[in-house]
């Protein structure tokens, strides 16, 4: 059994790839994503289209399919996947937002021998389960970890993660990542849990941070779970009279965050880099369909990217270009 | 130290105060609640909580929710609810940031625009409540969702983002979004101003009695010549205005307006009013009570962080306080009524 038949199977597989590559040559790639007017997804779409420029040069195309709204996300997205199959896609990129609703549609893609890449949501587990080529996306835990590691390496090793949404799985993942990231540099951290009545109220967040800093004078590193929370956290630090001695990293960014990084009141922002998700998912498929090349690295992480004083100007230029 | 304490009983005696009449004041329950809660957290929180950092911490919280709780309490006294404040706060922040930040107009235009949004939402609430028989709870929930949707839509349309940044000029910032002594938010002083105006309105001006009459028996009030519809519309406009004011103060303080947010103000403002002795069915309540209720709420909210308690414990305490407040309100009211009948 074994060695010979394995080699034979391998040869057969590569022959099949060569054959498809020979016949197709130009790839018509369909990308399923969010609403194009959604700020995050507009960047993913730009990434996909920029990578699609190469496909177009080779005679292929990139088509973006997004739902009208997010009211019925799983079934709507599954319908878009089937639409892509029907329109004769050579390759499909899709996020596995709601596995129960979307898995059957992804299985239909694989059954039709259409190369598939899962991106943005679902993780490498769903790519493996469905037989997709790869997964391209960010991981919440690693985003928090990057923040902890960044502050820890800068010498700020006693930390707290400001959790304004206790109970949400992705937020818990940010915080446990942050604490583990700090620990990896020899520091230690804990979670400052806010009551549910504080979420969305910047003053409540700022005052909670301030009280916590006064009661725990050792703390010199904070992690906030979003752009708005980061601004509130910075205000809390100022009111505690600890500007300059307590350093903050936060998830995501907006113009206020970028201005704070420029001004030095925020150490870093963690970016999930949506542009990369669209760009690499489309590139991987285009090269695979056109030339039969593969990316053996499984699970392509597009985040976390770190924005700090060293690259903030470049990020601002990226924002103006619509890529960040 | 000992002389003021010795003088105190004499002072109260000359001004005609007695424990008996004090306890029959409608605010008595709220005052006792505040003192008990403050002592509890003072013991757990220690010197820091009792010092300036502690006071500024809970006063900052109290000021913002307090500015909204005043008109919301007034509406409750007149027998109505206003849920839409939760959507007016972010709508006002975003309006202000878009006008003055995105379009670069003078700060006064942004502030005026944001306050107009609040007044307009209040006007619409009031018109629907007075022209139809739909309960205000439902009307203002509906308006809240409509305003939330419009805010999100507008921000995404104009800015392409769910947050809008705005850096106010130093004068505006110092009036609306600065921290005095590095810790006391200027909104505390605005809150004091609101308290003075609302106190005059409810307890000194003749219109105040109309508000009570509205909540006690709207039909009779109208028959007695109270312009009930006009009064209600103005009350809703006051709460829209106050919520918009808080939205402006937040954008001036944090220099960033978020589309989502403001939701906590809905229940927090109602809780402050109820802990402060406002009765849900209308007809009873006072400004001092609402202020005490707000202070109690804020002390619990911030006290938990100074006392190093689990924040969930804070929520349990607030829930328990709310129930205790409703129960004591009933008993104090019974006491006050029995006293009044005895006097006759």
UniProtKB/TrEMBL annotation, chain A:
Annotated InterPro entries: Bact_Solute-Bind_Prot2 (IPR050555), SBP_2_dom (IPR025997)
A family per Pfam: Peripla_BP_4
Domain Periplasmic binding protein: 31-290
Signal peptide: 1-26
Keywords (A to Z) from UniProt: Signal
UniProt keyword Acetylation, yes or no: no
Presence of keyword Signal: yes
Subcellular location: Cell envelope
Primary localisation category: other
Coiled coil: none
Family the UniProt entry places it in: Belongs to the bacterial solute-binding protein 2 family.
PANTHER family named in the record: ABC TRANSPORTER PERIPLASMIC-BINDING PROTEIN YPHF, D-XYLOSE-BINDING PERIPLASMIC PROTEIN
Protein name as catalogued: Substrate-binding domain-containing protein
Automatic annotation (TrEMBL), chain B:
Domain of life: Bacteria
Entry keyword Cell inner membrane: yes
Keyword field: Cell inner membrane, Cell membrane, Membrane, Sugar transport, Transmembrane, Transmembrane helix, Transport
Membrane topology qualifier: Multi-pass membrane protein
InterPro entries given in the database record: ABC_transp_permease
Subcellular location: Cell membrane
TM spans (from-to): 31-52, 58-76, 107-130, 137-158, 178-202, 235-254, 313-336
Transmembrane as UniProt keyword: yes
Major localization listed first in the record, in broad terms: membrane
One Pfam entry name: BPD_transp_2
Function: Part of the binding-protein-dependent transport system for D-xylose. Probably responsible for the translocation of the substrate across the membrane.
Protein's recorded name: Xylose transport system permease protein XylH
Phylogenetic lineage: Bacteria, Pseudomonadati, Pseudomonadota, Alphaproteobacteria, Rhodobacterales
């Amino acid at each position: 059994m074994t060695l010979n038949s394995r080699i034979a199977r391998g040869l057969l597989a590569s022959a099949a790839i060569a054959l498809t590559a020979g016949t197709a040559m130009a790839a018509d790639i369909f990308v399923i994503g969010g609403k194009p007017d959604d700020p995050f997804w507009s960047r993913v779409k730009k990434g996909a289209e920029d990578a699609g420029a190469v496909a177009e040069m080779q005679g292929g195309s990139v088509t973006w399919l997004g739902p009208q709204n997010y009211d019925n996300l799983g079934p709507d997205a599954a319908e878009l996947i089937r639409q892509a199959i029907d329109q004769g896609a050579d390759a499909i990129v899709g996020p596995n937002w709601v596995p129960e609703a979307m898995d059957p549609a992804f299985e239909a893609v694989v059954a039709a021998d259409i190369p598939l890449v899962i991106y943005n949501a679902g993780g490498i587990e769903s790519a493996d389960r469905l037989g997709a080529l790869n997964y391209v996306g960010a991981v919440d835990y690693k985003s928090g970890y990057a923040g902890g590691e960044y502050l820890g390496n800068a010498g700020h090793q006693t930390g707290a993660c400001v959790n304004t949404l206790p109970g949400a799985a992705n937020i818990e993942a940010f915080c446990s990542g942050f604490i583990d990231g700090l620990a990896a540099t020899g520091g230690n951290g804990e979670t400052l849990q806010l009551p549910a009545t504080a979420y969305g109220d910047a003053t409540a967040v700022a005052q909670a941070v301030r009280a916590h800093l006064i009661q725990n004078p050792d703390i010199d590193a904070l992690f906030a779970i979003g752009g708005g929370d980061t601004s509130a956290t910075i205000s809390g630090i100022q009111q505690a009279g600890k500007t300059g001695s307590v350093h903050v990293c936060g998830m995501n960014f907006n113009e206020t965050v970028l201005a704070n990084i420029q001004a030095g009141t925020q150490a870093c922002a963690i970016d999930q880099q949506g542009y990369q998700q669209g760009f690499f998912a489309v590139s991987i498929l285009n090269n695979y369909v056109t030339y039969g090349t593969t990316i053996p690295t499984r699970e392509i992480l597009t985040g976390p990217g770190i924005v700090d004083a060293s690259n903030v100007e470049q990020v601002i230029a990226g924002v103006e270009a619509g890529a960040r | 130290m000992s002389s003021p304490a010795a003088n105190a009983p004499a002072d109260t005696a000359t001004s005609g105060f007695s424990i008996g009449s004090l306890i029959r004041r409608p605010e008595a329950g709220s005052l006792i609640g505040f003192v008990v809660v403050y002592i509890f957290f003072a013991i757990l929180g220690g010197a820091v909580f009792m010092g300036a950092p502690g006071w500024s911490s809970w006063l900052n919280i109290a000021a913002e929710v307090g500015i909204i709780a005043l008109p919301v309490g007034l509406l409750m006294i007149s027998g109505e609810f206003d849920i839409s404040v939760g959507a007016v706060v972010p709508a006002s922040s975003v309006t202000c940031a878009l006008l003055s930040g995105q379009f670069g107009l003078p700060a006064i235009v942004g502030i005026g625009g944001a306050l107009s949004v609040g007044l307009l939402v209040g006007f619409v609430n009031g018109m629907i409540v007075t022209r139809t028989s739909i309960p205000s709870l439902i009307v203002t929930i509906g308006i809240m969702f409509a305003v939330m949707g419009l805010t999100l839509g507008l921000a995404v349309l104009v800015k392409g983002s769910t947050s809008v940044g705005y850096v106010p000029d130093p004068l505006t910032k110092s009036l609306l979004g600065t921290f005095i002594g590095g810790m006391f938010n200027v909104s505390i002083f605005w809150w004091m101003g609101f308290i003075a105006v609302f106190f005059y309105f409810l307890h000194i001006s003749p219109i105040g009695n109309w508000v009570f009459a509205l909540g006690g028996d709207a039909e009779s009030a109208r028959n007695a010549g109270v312009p009930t519809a006009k009064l209600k519309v103005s009350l809703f406009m006051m709460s829209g205005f106050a919520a918009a004011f808080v939205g402006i103060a937040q954008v001036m303080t944090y220099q960033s307006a978020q589309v989502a947010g403001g939701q906590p103000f809905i229940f927090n403002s109602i809780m402050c009013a109820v802990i402060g002795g406002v009765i849900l069915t209308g007809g009873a309540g006072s400004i001092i009570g609402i202020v005490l209720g707000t202070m109690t709420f804020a002390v619990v909210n911030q006290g938990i962080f100074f006392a190093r308690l689990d924040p969930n414990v804070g929520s349990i305490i607030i829930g328990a306080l709310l129930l205790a407040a409703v129960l004591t309100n009933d008993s104090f009211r019974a006491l006050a009524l029995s006293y009044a009948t005895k006097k006759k």
